[in-house]
Design the sequence.
């Protein structure tokens, strides 16, 4: 279906046929949800042996009784696990609670209220802003919006953020104090940053406000679907450019073991970690060390973690294949949309024709298929072209993913034809 070259009569015929198909779908009263990237029950079952793994032995290898208070940095064995995931030294890791989002919020709040490593607190700047590669992760944007930190869109490319745009913005605006990055299998595009992009990001600290920080949310560091995709080390790049203080890395086991009961990690330079811990001392007496010990025993060796993630991949691959096959079959020879083919992570990013995403999502919802709201992948929920839709196939069973995608492609076709008729 190529609607740019279609006559009005052809568009009207297509609209009539597609509307009839859509009405038949609506009669089925579906209730399907592909809104967020949650692990499925089958994935969660992979970690069921966490339950009871301690068998009454609550002492860590260094003798720490994990049932008691203390240990702001987290257990040494848990920090080792985080170091393996992030590929950094364990002494540069803090192991926290169940959510890397909590650690990110805490880090942004630290920069905003107190500043990092002796630099000016961001709240004292005239108009503090973050660079936001788009489409991106809505929860990152929510943190900035809640604290009143401005957000500036930077386009995503197939190798990461548009670095020409990012460098120009940082060079010319001293109020830019951060950038959000999901560097491997980006949410939602699935892009992994190239070596050149990582190196140029590491150099931003040379031209930015001294308080500038890269928030490196490596949520999908070990979530490969097929062969391992290598992400260049941001730590090595910043050390080479004498900008080690400019990056703060995050990861967790939220999509590795139990989504609500994992372990989160933050890694950075000693100066940045000291700033974080200074505030942590006033807000906590330490993380859940019992849960940290459970995870450390469950993944006693890094090879065990890799084998565990291969099991995740085997569950996820058919679902991603289903999404991509439906898109290719429906739009491979059309002008109705563009999409990424991720090699890992949790999402497929689809771009409709301009001005169609909101209508596609409304049509799908009315037919019983919930999608992430239009604009969610942009700051303030505003997609300038109303194009991007994030598809999350991980949670439903495969047959539900297949049904949801059948509805989705029909809604894309119907919304696109109707939009073209309005313009014709």
Sequence:
């Amino acid at each position: 279906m190529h609607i740019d070259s279609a006559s009005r009569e052809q568009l009207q015929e297509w609209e009539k046929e597609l509307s009839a198909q859509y009405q038949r779908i609506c009669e089925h009263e579906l209730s399907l949800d592909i809104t967020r990237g949650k692990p499925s029950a089958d994935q969660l079952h992979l970690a069921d042996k966490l339950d009871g793994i301690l068998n009454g032995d609550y002492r860590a290898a260094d003798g720490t009784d994990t049932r008691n208070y203390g240990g702001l940095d987290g257990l040494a064995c848990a920090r080792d696990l985080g170091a393996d995931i992030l590929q950094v030294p364990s002494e540069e890791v803090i192991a926290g609670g169940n959510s890397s989002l909590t650690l990110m919020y805490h880090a942004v709040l630290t920069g905003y209220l107190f500043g990092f490593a002796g630099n000016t607190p961001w709240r004292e700047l005239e108009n503090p802003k973050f660079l936001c590669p788009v489409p991106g992760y809505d929860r990152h944007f929510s943190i900035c919006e809640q604290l009143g930190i401005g957000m500036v869109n930077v386009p995503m490319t197939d190798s990461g953020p548009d670095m020409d745009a990012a460098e120009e913005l940082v060079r010319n605006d001293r109020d830019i104090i951060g950038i959000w990055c999901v560097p491997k299998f980006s949410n939602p595009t699935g892009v992994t940053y190239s070596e050149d992009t990582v190196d140029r990001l590491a150099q931003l600290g040379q031209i930015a406000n001294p308080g500038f920080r890269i928030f490196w949310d490596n949520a999908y560091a070990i979530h490969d679907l097929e062969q391992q995709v290598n992400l260049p080390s941001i730590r090595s790049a910043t050390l080479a450019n004498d900008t080690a203080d400019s990056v703060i890395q995050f990861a967790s086991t939220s999509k590795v073991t139990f989504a609500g009961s994992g372990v989160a990690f933050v890694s950075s330079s000693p100066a940045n970690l000291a700033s974080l811990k200074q505030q942590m001392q006033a807000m906590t007496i330490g993380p859940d060390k019992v849960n940290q010990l459970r995870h450390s025993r469950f993944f006693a060796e890094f090879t065990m973690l890799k084998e565990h993630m291969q099991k995740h991949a085997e569950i996820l691959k058919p679902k991603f294949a289903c999404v991509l096959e439906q898109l290719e079959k429906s739009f491979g020879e059309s002008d109705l949309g563009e999409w990424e083919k991720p090699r890992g992570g949790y999402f497929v990013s689809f771009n409709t024709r301009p001005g169609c995403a909101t209508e596609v999502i409304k049509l799908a919802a009315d037919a019983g298929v919930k999608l992430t709201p239009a604009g969610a992948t942009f700051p303030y929920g505003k997609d300038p072209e109303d194009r991007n839709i994030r598809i999350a196939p991980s949670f439903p069973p495969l047959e539900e993913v297949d049904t949801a995608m059948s509805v989705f492609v029909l809604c894309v076709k119907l919304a696109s034809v109707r939009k073209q008729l309005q313009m014709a």
